[in-house]
Amino acid sequence: MIIKNFKIGATGNFPRGATDDTDKGELRMALTVDHQQGIVRLLFGEPIAWLGLPANEARALATLLNERADELERGRT
Fold first, then answer.
1. Which residues does 68 contact at the CB level (< 8 Å), separation at least 6?
2. Which of 2, 53, 54, 71 is the Cys-Cys partner for 58 at CB 3.0 to 4.6 Å?
3. Model confidence pTM above 0.85
4. Are the C-beta atoms of residues 48 and 27 closer than 8 Å to each other?
5. CA–CA separation, 25 vs 61, rounded Å?
6. Is 35 left (phi over 0), alpha (psi -120 to 50) or beta?
């Protein structure tokens, strides 16, 4: 799926407040499947030192990663 005008990277927003001095706030990222390289790629738009997610968002990311991994494997058969 392609979302027009979607930009990855830091947004400058802190929807849950800053967790510490190293927190750069909300980060938009993208997940892609690179069939040619045989990898699932996470695009952050900039270097990041860490990613913190509440439990429900961590589970949602895990689900998306598993779905993309399944897509990659289906493409290999």
1. 31, 32, 33, 40
2. 53
3. no
4. yes
5. 18
6. alpha
